[in-house]
């Protein structure tokens, strides 16, 4: 796919800044560079140039320019980078000069990336990874996103595609053969079966990959228990600010209070909830209790500040709170949010639990879209394996290949792509 129009945008942060990098991409890039700088420097070598307004030859800025002829560029098109002084008026003047040139216009959000995708420079997984990388706030988010951008997952999918093609070719050959004498070669069928099983094992292993949404939004830690157990006090201590109201009145917290917080490079989403009790005359509190139960259902980790025999889930962490004033023969992790006693142990335990849910060093995380498609691929492989008829096996393998195409975005629906790219900032 090629496009006629060329685009430009400020690709660095909002001015004023030390440097403002304006990128241009498309067939008009070279003429634009010539018009602004009066020359086209050697490819991929930084050089200084006085940029002039082509209309009146007045100086705009002295900038570092980088001429990047396509197709070996990030968009796959001719590109130039203008590293200008990052003042508002400088950027505005250079952008105005570019905008006045024929065939050049401002880029829409994500349009550079979209061109990279359209020209096969990035597949959909790398695009999603880039979106995550730009949004990354913690080091674990950054690491997992970078692996996606670098194409680790895409290369694995490519291996799947090749394995599927090989298996399909074997199945077709066996079918041709069986046409001739009605006796399919048992050895070939066994080889196909083994190949499918090996591929299914590799694909299935990815279904356990950590969730990119969880990595992005934070590990959901829900604090729950009876009224006045000290949930809100503990939440405030964990996030380091007075996010929730604390009082000695039972039933103080009614709504769910969600507070994101990064602890040692891991994103958590802490949720304080209304105290759970069976009977309340207060209609609002009753709604709060329903919401608390819903939060518990969605929790990755539960901190339970109640009775041990009322644990909402077997893996909930039992917390014996307010240890500074309650006699401590209680089971569970003893702590006082007031004095800080036991807090370090709780944080260490949260980190340990979170690590098990998040990608480790060198692991990638999968978005729901990716996980769903990996699941579909696995279903087709299982069906291909279980089929008694080689025709069915061949068809399931073909369906598997189309799932792989969806995974890389080769068979993506247009509105999904529009949504994804519009989430990018301008200049990316
Ligand atoms: N001494 C001491 N008091 C605490 C501690 N934690 C909470 N409290 C007190 O216990 C009372 C209840 O605390 P909250 O944090 O509001 O309890 P809660 O579980 O959120 O209560 P609800 O929102 O009403 O369900 C308040 O008066 C707190 O100051 C603690 O560790 N030590
Ligand atoms: K309270
Ligand atoms: Mg509370």
From TrEMBL:
Keywords, A to Z? Cytoplasm, GTP-binding, Hydrolase, Magnesium, Metal-binding, Nucleotide-binding, Potassium, tRNA processing
Q: Where does Mg(2+) bind?
A: 232, 253
Q: What residues bind (6S)-5-formyl-5,6,7,8-tetrahydrofolate, as annotated? A: 23, 81, 121, 428
What are the recorded GO MF terms, alphabetically? hydrolase activity
- Cellular compartment(s): Cytoplasm
UniProt cross-references to InterPro entries, sorted A to Z: G_TrmE, GTP-bd, GTP-bd_TrmE_N, GTPase_MnmE, MnmE_dom2, MnmE_helical, P-loop_NTPase, Small_GTP-bd
- Entry EC number(s): 3.6.-.-
Asked if the record carries the keyword Nucleotidyltransferase, the reply is no
NCBIfam families in the record: PRK05291.1-3 (NF003661), small_GTP (TIGR00231)
Assembly and interaction partners: Homodimer. Heterotetramer of two MnmE and two MnmG subunits.
This chain belongs to the protein called tRNA modification GTPase MnmE
